[in-house]
Structures are given as C-alpha cells and as structure tokens.
Here is the input.
Amino acid sequence: MTISSPALVCLQCGTTANRATVQMCRRCGLRFGEAPPPSARLATCPVCYRETDADGRLASLSRPGLRVDIASHVDEHERFPVGDDSWLETLRVHDRIRIGRWSAPYDLVRRYLVTGIVDAGRNRLALHNSIVTAMTQIQRWGSDPTILGDQEEWRAAREAVEALMARFHAPGSVRRTE
Here is the structure.
C-alpha cells in the first residue's frame, strides 16, 4: 500500500510540483507518480541518508506497511528524528563541528552519527585528522579497542566521539562534550 503527499512528487529525484496542473518533473522529465526507470539515480533522504527503493518510495515511519514518497518521508522525521540535531548544531562552527579540542567536517560527523558509516567513497570529503581517525577506529574495532601503537591523541579523540555519540542518540540527556 502506498500513500503520497498532497503535493505531486517525482519518485526519481524527489522534486515537488509547484502547481497542481504540472504533470512532468522539471528536473528529470519523469511524470509525477510514475516509477523511476531501473537505471535511475534515486533520491536520498537528507535527514537519515536512506536511498529510496526501486519504486521511488520508502517505508513509512509512522504507519507500518505503507510506502511514502521522499517528501512525505522527510516530513515524518519531524515526529521521528534520527538524533538530537538541535544540540548538534550548537557544536557547529561554520561548516565544521567542534568536539573537545578537535574539529572535523560537520556533514561527515553527522552522517557518521546517523548511519555509523564513515564515508570512504571516491568523492571522499574526509580530512585525515584525529576525529575522522577516531570514527574509523570505533567503526572498525568498537568503543574500547586495544590498538598496537595506539596514540594518546587517538584515544582522547575516540573518547570525545563516543561521548558525542551517546549524547546525540539520547536527546533528553544532560551529558555534554566540551
């Protein structure tokens, strides 16, 4: 079963129609409501980073068994947040985030907090600094690893990232990393 938002939404790219009379997406040329072709690059949620399924929809967060377009899915995140984004914004300094005495690209850290994956694709934005190294080590070996040749800086950065992870995923918590 599927539902769609009141606005017409392209199931390939997620663009919404600005008028009810519009029938085709201005970005990709697909008819609104039509399933994307198999080779299409699908829309990705800017909140939880999930890519839509082949039909251009995602499982509803609020109503099990229903499938919604990307615009409705993003709206559902108002009631189903992935973490404490308002608190995370308080640590932001322009396009970077300050964690203890370290800083790293904000988007990379937020993506890691939400997905648990350090993006290492071809278009990698990561700077090889202590925060990124700490995130990679936590992803690979867990929260309290024994690492041959471990450095004090890496250990301290891992502890800072772990505290940040605990606070981000527990919105009511008073624990802060500074």
Observations:
- Residues 1-6, 173-178 have pLDDT under 50 and may be disordered.
- Strands lie at 2-3, 58-59, 67-68, 92-93, 96-99, 102-105.
- The CA atoms of residues 1 and 65 lie 7 Å apart.
- The longest strand covers residues 96-99.
